C-alpha cells in the first residue's frame, strides 16, 4: 500500500525516466529557488566573502592603502607571531573575554531569575538593569574616565572623603589593575543585555512544568536546578556565544578609557588592529584581522559543538 | 549703389563687432596668464564663482580660519571655501581613505608632511604646486623639505611649532632652581624640586605620544648630536635600533628620570589635558608642551608666570626641536576649476600678512621669511625665540623600511619602562621588530 506522497514521487520518477537526461536534470534542478536566493547571495558575496578574501590578499602584502603593495608572502604573519607585544595582546584578549563572559553570566542569570519572579517593581528593576546597555559605549567610556581620573576623578575623591583614602587607586594608569577596571565597566554595561537573553529563556519555559514540580513537592532551588536550568541550556549557548564574540571584538570602551595602555596592559585584538590601520599599516593590519577572523570562527565552532551537547 | 555701400558698411561694422566680441572671449579663455590666475586679485574678482572644499584637523583654530575667510571674501570674492574639520585622532585615516577613493577635499592639511605627504605624493595623489606664486615666501629650508625628486613642490609648509619644557617661574624660585643649561643641571633641578615637595614635571603619560615628546626633547641634544646619521643608517638598513648607541644614551637619560621618581606609574592614568590642568593650577613645575599649549594654560590661569627652555645636552647643546605644524596640499583628482580655486586660496594663505595674523592668533609660527611676529603672551615670545635660534627638524623614517607603528610602539614601551615592565634592551628589541624584511 502506497501513500499519496509516495505515489507522486514514483510518478515523477517515471516521467523523468522517459525524458532525455538533460531535460531530466533541468526539471530536477529548477532555477527558480536559486533565482530567489541570488540577491541575498550576491550581497553576501559582495559585502562579506569578497572583503574577507581581499583582507587575506592584503595580508600577504606590505601595503599602505595607497600605492601598489609589495608582495611579501607570509612575512606579516611571521612578524606578528614573533612580536612580544602581539603575544601580550592575545593574553589580554583572553583575560578580558574570559572574565567578562564568566562574570556577566554569573550575575545576569540571578538578575533574570529575580525580575522573572513575582517581586514588586519588577518592571522598574528590569529597566534599571537594562538601561546601561542602551547607552553609547563612547559616552560610558568618557563618563568612567572622569570617575576614574587619578587626580580629578570622583571615585578617589569620594574614597578619600569617606576616610578610605588607602583604597584610592590609579584605576586606569596602573598596569596591574587597569584591565580589571575596564572589565568592570564592560560588565556593568553588558549585564543588562545578557540578563534580557536569559529572561527570554526563562519566560519560554512552560509554567505548567514548574507548577507540576511544585505540586510534586520540589523546593524552588530544586525546581531551578533540575528543571529550569537544564531547560535554559539552548539560551546558554546563545548568550555565551554572543558574549564571547562581542567581547573578543570589544573596541569602543577600551579605546576611550585607556587607548590600549598603559604600556599595552589593556591592548586587545581590535585596539591593536585599529592602531595598525590608523597608522597606515594596512598589510600588517589585515594579517591581524585574518587571525582574528580565524580565532572567532574556531571559537564559534568549538563553543557551539560543546554547548549543543547539553541541549535537548 | 548707395544701398550696396550701406549694406557693405553695415556688414563690415557687424563683422568687426562680432570679431571683437569673439576675440575678446577667446583671449581670456585660451591664453590665461599664470600670473593672472594666481596673483591678480582684480582679475579674480570678475572670475567665475568657484566653491572649494578644505579639510584640516585644527579644531582649536576654527575662529582664526573664520577670520581668514572673511579676508578672502574681500580679496577673492569668487572663491567660497567649505571647511571641514576632522578630529585629529582620525585625520590621517580619513584623509588616506578619501584619497584612495577619490573623495578627498580640493585642498587639505597634511599631518606629518614628511612621512604622510611624501607617501601621498608617491601614490600620485598630490597636485604639483610649482606655479603658486607665493611659495617663494616660504623659507628655503622648509620649501626644500616638500620638493620631490622630480622637482615638484608637493605641499606647502605653512606653520611650525616647537616643543620645549614650559616651566612655572614661581615654583622654580620657591625651590631655588635656575633654568637648566645642561643635562646634569636639568636632572639636578628635577631632584631638587622633588625633594622640595614639588611635582617636577606634569606628565600626561596615558597619552603615549607625550612620552615620545619628552624622549624627542632629550634626543634632539643627545642622540641627534652623538649620532646625526642615525636615521640615514636606519632608512638604508645599515643599522638596527639595537646598534644605535646614541639612542641608547637618550633612553638612559629617560631611565634616569624614572629612577629619580620624576616619571612614575601614577602619571600613566593622566591624559595630556589632565597634565595641562595640573600645570595650570601650579601643581607641577614643568610641562612638556608645544607653543600652541600656552594659550590654553593662560586661559586656565591668567596669572601664571611661565617660561620655556630646551632640555640641553651633556655639553650644553641647545638645539630646539621644531615640528611642522600645518602643511597644505591640493588634490590631484579635483577638477581643473577646483584646483585653480584651491591654488588661489593657497596663494592667499601664503601672503605674509595673512600668515602673520594666523600665527599670532594660534601660537603656531609662520614658516614665511621676513615676517616679524608679535605675541601678546611673553611665553609664546619665548617659544618663538627658541624656534628661531637653533631649529632642528627630525628626519622622516622610511615607512617601507620601518613599520609606521614604530612610534606608538616606542611610546607604549616608554610607558612600560615607567611601570617597570620593560628595559632599554626590550624597547630596542621591540623597535627592531618593526623593521620590515627586505
Could you characterize the architecture of this molecule?
The complex is a heterodimer of chains A (312) and B (438). Chain A is an all-alpha fold and 312 residues long. Chain A has helices at 4-18, 21-28, 32-58, 75-82, 84-116, 122-134, 137-148, 154-161, 178-203, 207-215, 220-231, 233-248, 252-257, 269-278, 282-308; strands at residues 61-62, 70-71. In chain A, strands 1-2 form a two-stranded antiparallel ribbon. In chain A, helix 3 (32-58) crosses helix 15, helix 5 runs parallel beside helix 9 and helix 6 packs across helix 9 (178-203). With 438 residues, chain B is of the alpha/beta class. In chain B, strands 1, 2, 3, 4, 5, 6, 7, 8, 9 and 10 form a ten-stranded mixed beta sheet that branches. In chain B, helix 4 (62-75) links the parallel strand 1 (50-56) and strand 2. The chains are: A mainly alpha (312), B alpha/beta (438). At the A-B interface, helix 4 and helix 14 of A face helix 5, helix 6, helix 14, helix 19 and helix 20 of B.
Give me the secondary-structure category of chain A: mainly alpha
- Quaternary state, please? heterodimer
Structural class of the secondary structure composition of chain B?
alpha/beta
The DSSP helix count of chain B reads 20
N- and C-termini, Cα separation of chain B: 91 Å
Globular, elongated, flat, extended or rod-shaped: what is the shape of chain B?
globular
Report low-confidence residues of chain B grouped into runs of 5 or more: 8-45
Number of strands of chain A: 2
Q: Determine the fraction of residues in helical runs of chain B and give it as a percent range.
A: 40-55%
What does the average pLDDT of chain B come to?
86
N to C succession of SSEs of chain B: HHHEHEHEHHEHHEHHHHHEHEEHHEHEHH
Uncertain stretches of 5 or more adjacent residues of chain A: none
**Main sheet properties of chain A:** 2 strands, antiparallel
Radius of gyration of chain A: 27 Å
Span between N and C termini of chain A? 36 Å
How big a fraction of the residues of chain B is strand?
A: 5-15%
Task: Tell me the series of helices and strands of chain A, N- to C-terminal.
Answer: HHHEEHHHHHHHHHHHH
Biggest sheet descriptor of chain B: 10 strands, mixed
Number of strands of chain B: 10
Radius of gyration of chain B equals 27 Å
> With helices defined by DSSP (H or I, 4 residues minimum), what is the helix count of chain A?
15
